[in-house]
Design a protein that fits this description.
Helices cover 60% and strands 7% of the residues. With 344 residues, the chain is an alpha+beta fold. The chain has two domains: 75 residues, Alpha-Beta Plaits (2-Layer Sandwich), CATH 3.30.70; 248 residues, no CATH class. A four-stranded antiparallel sheet has the order 2-3-1-4, covered by helices on one side. A hairpin with a 4-residue loop joins strand 2 and strand 3.
């Protein structure tokens, strides 16, 4: 078999989850031997045997495989005018984001839920972060796993049980692993300054996540931290195990997939220093992701394929950025570096 190497540009990648998802999907294409996606350069390296097909034909075939997940493959770098045109969507996204944040701050002032103080994150906050995460591209790989698993078991006529096992495994594992992380945090007594560093770092991660969701600054993608790729790949590989309990294992494995929101909450959980607090923090986060993932379970629902997806992601990105800035400012105020600016 003759193996040739091709390098294509890929549009739509925002985070490490996108890298894993595109690699996983493209590896299943006929003739493909290896795939390596690069978030920084927005390219994908394909090695394989495609016979006498032209490079254009190969690009079109590969693009069809991942376009339903919101990605596009091309021979040339996507033109800047596409990004420039998307700037106009801020006219709609900014007002929506401001209203969204204003309503949440009002709810907080009413004492219903603490939204922006990283020194005392409530379970209501983690639930809301879970909702935002489930609607972001960071959950693309989880949604992709769920859709693939659903299709596989649907062929055997089993549509309901696998879904129940997946969501049960996901929610229970987040509770258990969250508790373990919290218990580990109890071993290390964090000083006020250490807590500040951790909270500030979480704020930075959230800020980078928000900027990446805007889809206009490609250079920020390389700044986003992620779980080691080898660990994420093993977690992703669980879905390929052919067993009755596979959906349960896939649900458990999602705890280790590269979602920036999940990793931010895992870092916060470490600072709780308590098994129950850590467990409940991750439990409510997983519970927040449940509605959208449940919808994905029984439909082909996909925000990324919607014509208004760019406006949606810009709105979510702006909301995440605003709350990240609130968190950063409050962290600086708690440590005494600056005077309190927001009286939330």
């Amino acid at each position: 078999m003759t193996k040739d190497k091709y390098i294509f540009y890929i549009n739509g990648m925002h985070c490490g989850a996108c890298v894993l998802l595109t690699e996983s999907k493209l590896k299943e294409a006929s003739g493909v031997v290896s795939v390596k996606s690069d978030l920084k350069t927005q390219t994908v390296e394909i090695v394989g045997d495609f016979g006498n097909k032209s490079t254009e034909e190969i690009a079109k075939e590969l693009s069809k495989i991942i376009e339903k997940d919101g990605y596009t493959i091309a021979l040339e770098k996507f033109l800047n005018k596409t990004t420039k045109n998307k700037w106009s969507n801020f006219k709609i996204a900014i007002p929506i984001a401001v209203i969204f944040v204003a309503v949440f701050v009002l709810i907080q002032k009413m004492g219903i839920v603490n939204l922006v103080d990283t020194s005392n994150v409530s379970y209501g906050t983690t639930f809301m972060v879970g909702i935002v995460a489930s609607l972001s591209t960071c959950m693309a790989v989880v949604g992709g796993l769920l859709l693939s698993m659903s299709a596989t078991f649907a062929k055997d006529g089993d549509k309901t049980k696998p879904q129940i096992l997946f969501h049960f495994g996901r929610i229970v594992s987040f509770f258990v692993f969250g508790g373990i992380i919290g218990a580990i945090g109890s071993v290390f007594t964090l000083s006020v300054f250490s807590t500040f560093i951790l909270s500030f770092f979480i704020g930075i991660i959230m800020l980078i996540l928000g900027i990446n969701l805007l889809g206009v600054f490609g250079w920020t993608k390389k700044l986003q931290p992620s779980m080691p790729k080898f660990l994420s790949k093993h977690a992703l590989g669980v879905s390929k195990i052919n067993h009755t309990l596979t959906p349960l294992l896939v649900g458990v494995a999602t705890f280790f997939l590269p979602c920036g929101f999940t990793q931010s909450m895992q870092l916060y959980t470490l600072s709780t220093g308590n098994f129950l607090n850590g467990a409940l923090t991750m439990f409510f986060f997983a519970l927040g992701t449940f509605p959208v993932l449940a919808l994905i379970s029984f439909s082909s629902f996909s925000i990324k394929n919607n014509s208004k997806s760019d406006i949606f992601f810009k709105t979510v990105g702006l909301v995440v950025i605003i709350f990240a800035l609130f968190n950063l400012i409050n962290s600086l105020a708690v440590i005494g570096i600056i005077s309190p600016i927001f009286n939330f």
